[in-house]
Amino acid sequence: MRLLTKLLASLLIVLVVTLATFLTVLSTNFGLPMVKQAVRLLTPYELSATSLEYNLLAPLTLALSDPQLTHNNDPQKHHAAHFISLRLSPLASLSGEMTLRSVVVRGLDIDEAMKSSLPPSLTIDHLALDDVNYHSEAISFAHADIQISDWKNSPSTWGAWQGKFQLSAPKIVIDGQTLTNLLLDSEYRDDAWEIWGLSLNSPFGNVTGSATLQSNHLWVVHQLTLSDTRIEPSESLQKLKKQWDTFSQHYDINIKRLDLLDVSAALTDITVEHLNFSVQSVNLQNGELVWTPNTAASLLSFNASLFNVGQWLFTDLLADLSLSPTRVDVSAFSSKINDEGFVSFSGKMDTSSLKLNTLTANGLDIELDTTMFAVLQQKWAAFDTVELGQFSVKHTNITLPDPAFPIQVIGLNLRGRDLIPRQHAQNGMWQGALTASAAAASINRIPVTAPYANMHVDNKGEWHLDPLSVSFSQGQLSVKARVQLLNPSHPWVTEISGLRIPNELYQRWLGVTLPLSGEHDVDARLSGLGADKDSFAYSLSGNVVATPYRTELTTRPEQSLSQSLLGIFVPLNEDGDNMRLPMTVEQVKLAADRGRISLAPVSVKANTGNASLSGSWDLVTKEGTLTNASR
C-alpha cells in the first residue's frame, strides 16, 4: 500500500513538473514551434502564425497573431485570421467534449463549410468574431462584429446556441437590400428569440425596434420605429414588397406599438409629406389586419403636412382615434382640405350608429358624383341612429351633378346642436335645433337665392319649422310647419305662402307631371297624419288658393284646349312636336277633407277657346276625375 502511494505521488509530481515545464516553454520563444508541433500531431492541419502571446499569470489563455490553418489532404480547406485568442476550460472538458471558455477571432472570412473543420463536440461558452466577412447570394456583410453565448457545433448550418447573439455591421446586404449601421442585441432561449434592440439605416429610412419570435411562428413587435423615410416607386420598393409578402405568409404579427416619424411618400395613388404616425395593438395574419376576441382597441394618432388621395388634398392633417372590431372613437380630427376649406370633428361610430360630438367645416368645395353619392346613401342607410352634438358649417359649396336631379348649393351655412337626423332607421329631425342658409342654390335647374330654414324640436317632442324661406328670380316662398313626433301618428300642420312661385317647381322638385310654365301666388293651410303613406292619404285636410300669372301650357298643335287641359297630368311624348299655349287662368282653389280633394271650377282662357276646369280626387282609392266645360 505504501508503495502504491509513493508511485501515485511520483506520477503526480511528474505531471505537475511536465505541465509547469510546458507552460513555461509557452512563454518563451519556443512556445510557438511547440504549439505548431502539437497541432500537427493532434489534427490533420498545419498551423502557421507570426507570434504567440502567453502569460503565466493567465495559464489557460493563449493568443496567436495572423494564424493560418491548412488541411494536410485538402489545400482548399485554408482558414486565416488576423488574430485568435483561446481560453481553455479543462474541467468542463473532462467529460470528453472539448469546451472552450471563450474564443475571440479577428479578421476572419467565414463560410458555411468552416464549421465542418471544427471538432464535432466543440462547445464555446463565449464566441466573439470581430471584423469578420461573409458573402452568399442571400446575405453578405463585411467588417462585422458578432458575439454568441453557449455556442455548440451541431448538424445545423451555423451550429446551435442558447443565450445572447449580438451583431454589428457597417453594411449588410439581405436579398439585394442594402442596410447600413446595423446593430442587433438579441437572445435565443427556450425556443424563443428575443430581440432586445435593433437599429439600422435602410433605403427607406432609419429603423429601430424590439421584438420576440415565439415558437408558434408569432412575432410580437414590442416597438418599431421608422424615421426619416422617403418612399418612391423603385425596384427596391417592389423587392421589399415581395419580401414582405413572403415573410407575412410564414408569420403572424402582433405589433404593440408602431411609430413612423417624418415619412414622405410619392406613390401612384397616394402622396404624403412629413407624416408622423403612431399606432398600438395591431394584429396581422397573412399581411392583413385581423381582430381577435381578446384584442385591445388599437390606438392611432397621426399628423401630416400633406396627404393627397384621388381628388382630395389634406394639409395640416391631425388625428387621434381608437379602433376596435366594431367601433371607432375619434378624439380629434382636423385638416385643411384642397387648400380652400377646413374640417374638424370628434365622435364615435359603430356598426349601427354614428355620433359626432363636434363638427366644424368651413370653406369646403364638395362635388359628389352619382357613384359616390350612392355609396354615401348606402353607408347612411346602414346606421340605425345618427346623432350630432355641436356642429357648424360655413361658406361651403356642394355640387351633386346627377342628371336626373342636379343640385348645387353656394355658400352653405349650417349651425345646430343635439341633432338626431336618423332614429330607428328612419330619417327625420327627431331632436335638436338647426339653422341653415346659403347665398344661392340651384335645385333641379330651378335657381333660388338666399334660402333659409330654422327648425327645432321642443321639449314636448314637437318639430317646428319656422320659417323656411326661398327667394326665386321674381318671387318668394315661405313655409311654416309643425309635427308631433312623440305621437305615433305624427300629426302635422303646415302653412305655405308664396309670391310669383315658378310653376316648374312642382314638376322638378316633387315629380308631379304638370307641363305649365309661368308663376303663381299661393296661400295654403294643410294638416294631417304622417306616420305612413296610408295615414297621410286618409287624413289630408286643408285649403290651397293659387293665383297664376303668365301661364303657358305645353301641348300638341293638333289638340284642342279641352283635350290639353284634360291631359294635363299625362306625360307628353317627347318624340312628338310640342308647342307652348299661352293661357289666362283665374284663381285656383283646392279643398282637402280627409284625403278627398276637390278643385273648384277654374276659368281658363286661350286664343283657341275658353274652358272651365274642375275635378275631384280620392287619395285613399286613388281615383279621380278632371272635368272641362268648354265655352
TrEMBL record:
Alphabetical GO biological process terms: regulation of protein targeting to membrane
GO CC, any one term: plasma membrane
All residue ranges annotated as the AsmA domain in the record: 6-544
Name of the protein in its database record: AsmA domain-containing protein
